[in-house]
């Protein structure tokens, strides 16, 4: 008698097996078949799942490779001479001087970051941290006396360029990172356009690139920029790269007439800004002996920046002023930069006057604050030092020169422009 499959038996309940030894053998035989049947099903399901999983892995891997190659920063079409920089800066100070968090850039950035992964960065060396003429003390003081700026100190990371600067930072601030690279001694005052100055400027550009690659937006500020109001409400939306100016033409998109200053910039982390900083850094080889601002002026019209669709805008000196071109309205000013100045002592002297002028302004009653009377004292030390430094008669020897405008603060010639040519 041929045994019925279990499914058929369930569908025909009226069929009954006779109780006999033969029926028992049949039932036993049916059970073995059933177990074998389900064993084959289980094995087939496992095999099918393994094949499906393998196929998913292969497909996923294929698309990962394709998209990774498509969006890899180093593989996007760069000019032929471009060689990408890919290292992330380590901290090379001895372990005895560092807490564990200070040795990792990403850890320091994460601790200081705003909710949208934005950090404020500045660099510091021993000369600018010297207690005798401390730019650092003035810088931090400006945050404390500025209008609603003290909270921004929680998001400030000070990048120390030598061991003494790092120790000075740790004494007065929470977020410090030691950026010390072999073959560089940047602890001393670096005068404009000297080899040490150029090294410092290009080290800064390459370091900022690494911050972008870690996914952080940054507001970079030189330590000789005084902060009087929160600058973030005055930045342009949907802009990759925006930078302050030595001279502002009145048009934020004017590439020709605006003269940028690398001492204050706000940059959003994305593929375009990362490409731009790599391109900017490697372009120094095309323009040897020029600093970062001059190179930026040379490359800002380059087709590569159009190709990557980089959005560039310039910041108005009405809000982001400096000694070159001051913010005239103290009710609007956000920052003031000791640009167009040479000599640490001259900077410190005129920045102290700047802070005193701000304190006097803040102490005025509201009615007087709105009057046109409050103004900055002229930075006489910086103006005279700059004239001596460039020695007007020694300029114009046929080398490449750029023109920047230095606002003459002399009361006897107020409003005139002194044209200073810099190489």
UniProtKB/TrEMBL annotation:
Record InterPro entries: At1g28695/At4g15970-like, Nucl-diP-sugar_transferase
Keywords from the UniProt entry: Membrane, Transmembrane, Transmembrane helix
Superkingdom, natural source: Eukaryota
Q: Any transmembrane segments, and where?
A: 50-67
Domain Nucleotide-diphospho-sugar transferase per the UniProt entry, residue ranges:
152-351
Protein name from the UniProt record: Nucleotide-diphospho-sugar transferase domain-containing protein
Q: Which organism is it from?
A: Lactuca saligna (Willowleaf lettuce)
